[in-house]
From TrEMBL:
Full protein name: Dihydrolipoamide acetyltransferase component of pyruvate dehydrogenase complex
Cofactor: (R)-lipoate
Alphabetized PROSITE patterns for the sequence: BIOTINYL_LIPOYL, PSBD
Native species: Eubacterium pyruvativorans
EC class: transferase
Length: 412
């Protein structure tokens, strides 16, 4: 009996996944443990492996399709076995002994495979696309097919009585947005859709305040240089500014539990752990926040190794669900891009996030009136005003500033 290949649930919040690539094709033999297809979710890429030996009998979900958790992706069984795929996802079966005719219309209970843009153009111009043969992947009707049908209709012999000139076609739109010449409609990845949803929700629900403080990091940068020369070189470690900031924030969070809270309706939750999520951008325009668990209990060396490992695996899509869940605070470092100040958006259910900005040279006058060059960096703390008041927020941010300006205390 054929076995269904189902969309797995790779995290508690996962609702659907996208089929990226079928590694095996219909009719291919598979062994238990073979990678059959690749999927992506809101945060991860994942290989789906065969759970038994057999043949890939049928592909139900095509590449690029979004499939809900537990939805059928395909079937594995024995050679010659037949399966009845769900009508909503399966293409109409061809007659066993005859060449498949060009499709005339969607079968009863079936669906016409057509891109979103092509459907919009067809509807705007009154084109009946149900009888068209698509030129896209797996017979999908695309924009070019609709335009060809429109051109064919325009070239047809005129009726005896010439009709009135057709009205200009309605402008192409996507979700109410009018398209201009050269515009390209691109599908958002699952990760991008999740980011959009969560950031919108955060911005709409949380009354936020962002405080910006200027930190003199002259001594910290000198300390880092000395630390890398005397310790890092001998142990194969190169400490970054981000490592020092992570450790300083972890220490401040341990000393200020009022910054480790979550709003919960009529209640608030006092978070027991210092779990710091760090924002990492990915090559496909996504954003993921791997979490350093119990960062306050780690040494600077441990924090440095953990942050680099998590960031590397986040960019390659190799994190497990456990590694990007459970933060109690977040850090977004845009200093390497020269950003001077910004207001980071809180990642719920956390109540705070720290934005780290670029280091800049600044001339300052000391108490004796002498001018000297100092290196300064701004930190931008956004907090949830429902559970953290302004005074508490400023004290917490000041604690981070004090630690960074006394870098030896980072190690204590």
């Amino acid at each position: 009996m054929a076995t269904e290949i189902l969309m797995p649930q790779l995290g508690l919040t996962m609702e659907e996944g996208t089929v990226d690539e079928w590694v095996k094709h219909e009719g291919d033999e598979v062994k238990k443990g073979d990678v059959v297809l690749k999927i992506t979710t809101d945060k991860l890429s994942n290989d789906i492996e065969a759970e038994e030996d057999g043949v890939l009998l049928k592909i139900v979900a095509q590449e690029g399709e979004d499939v809900p958790v537990k939805g059928v992706l395909g079937y594995i069984g024995q050679a010659g076995e037949t399966v009845d795929a769900p009508a909503a996802d399966a293409a109409p079966a061809a007659a066993p002994a005859a060449a498949a005719p060009a499709p005339a219309a969607a079968p009863a209970g079936g669906r016409v495979r057509i891109s979103h843009l092509a459907k919009k153009i067809a509807e705007a111009n009154g084109v009946d696309y149900t009888g068209l043969t698509g030129s896209g992947t797996n017979g999908r009707i695309v924009k070019a097919d609709i335009e060809a049908a429109m051109a064919k209709a325009a070239a047809a012999p005129a009726a005896a009585a010439a009709p009135a000139p057709a009205a200009a076609p309605a402008p192409e739109t996507v979700d109410g947005i009018e398209l201009q010449d050269g515009d390209e409609v691109k599908k958002m990845s699952g990760m991008m859709r999740t980011i959009a949803k969560r950031m919108t929700q955060s911005a709409q629900e949380i009354p936020t305040v962002t405080h910006v403080m200027k930190v003199d990091v002259t001594d910290m940068l000198a300390f880092r240089k000395k630390l890398n020369a005397e310790y890092g070189a001998a142990h194969g470690i190169k400490f970054s500014v981000n490592d020092l900031v992570l450790k300083a924030v972890a220490k401040a969070l341990r000393e200020h539990p009022e910054a480790r809270v979550s709003y919960a309706g009529k209640n608030y939750i006092q978070r027991a752990h210092v779990n710091i999520g760090m924002a990492v951008s990915t090559d496909d325009g996504g954003l993921i926040t791997p979490v350093i668990k119990d960062a306050d209990k780690m040494t600077l060396t441990e924090v440095s190794k953990a942050s680099k490992d998590l960031a590397s695996r986040a960019r390659s899509g190799e994190l497990t669900a456990e590694e990007y869940h459970g933060s109690t605070f977040n850090i977004s470092n845009l200093g390497m891009f020269g950003v001077e100040s910004f207001s980071p958006i809180i990642n719920q259910p956390d109540s705070g996030i720290l934005g780290v900005c670029a280091t800049e040279d600044e001339l300052q006058m000391d108490e004796e009136g002498k001018i000297e060059k100092r290196q300064v960096m701004r930190i931008c703390y956004t907090h949830d005003h429902r559970v953290i008041n302004g005074a508490e927020a400023v004290k917490f941010e000041k604690a981070i500033k004090d630690i960074l300006e006394d870098p030896m205390s980072i190690l204590l």
